[in-house]
Amino acid sequence: AGVLAMQPEVLILDEPAAGLDPHGRNEILSRIEYMHKEKNMSIILVSHSMEDIARMAERVIVMKDGKIAAEGSVHDIFKMGDALKEINLDVPQIKRLTDELRKRGYNLPEDIYTVEKAHEEILKLFGREN
Question: CA-to-CA distance for 45 and 57, rounded, in angstroms?
Fold first, then answer.
């Protein structure tokens, strides 16, 4: 709160949602999104949660042993599923689910990384818009 009172242009957060229950996680991530969008604050978010990264990030830098292992858009990074696993990361769970549905013949886009996007696309698939 003290840092936010100083109205910084850049806020660096290290695992801000770690250990929170789902409600607390959504609350803090929503507030971070608000600060970014409404207060025009740049946010640097450090996280091992690929779900958080999928929801929040515009640009991703993957670090391994203190060096940049990959850099790009969320889509670019999550296309590297096997390479992420080699450095003990993974794609979001919903991506694994929609990839499996695609393998089983469902026509879903490859760029589904959040539950909200999966919900939207599955409704479209069955002719039911939001």
Answer: 8
Query: Per-residue confidence at 83, pLDDT binned at 50, 70, 90?
Result: confident
Q: What pTM, to 2 d.p., does this model score?
A: 0.78
Asked whether 39 and 5 are in contact (CB, 8 A), the reply is: no
DSSP string, 33-77: HHHHHHS--EEEEE-S-HHHHHHH-SEEEEEETTEEEEEEEHHHH
pLDDT tens digits for range 23-51: 999 999 999 999 999 989 999 999 989 99
* 71: β partners: 61
Instruction: Output 11-16 pairs: Cβ under 8 A, ≥24 positions apart.
Output: 11/35, 11/41, 11/42, 11/43, 11/44, 12/43, 12/44, 12/46, 13/43, 13/44, 13/45, 13/46, 14/46, 15/46, 15/47, 15/48, 15/49, 16/45, 16/47
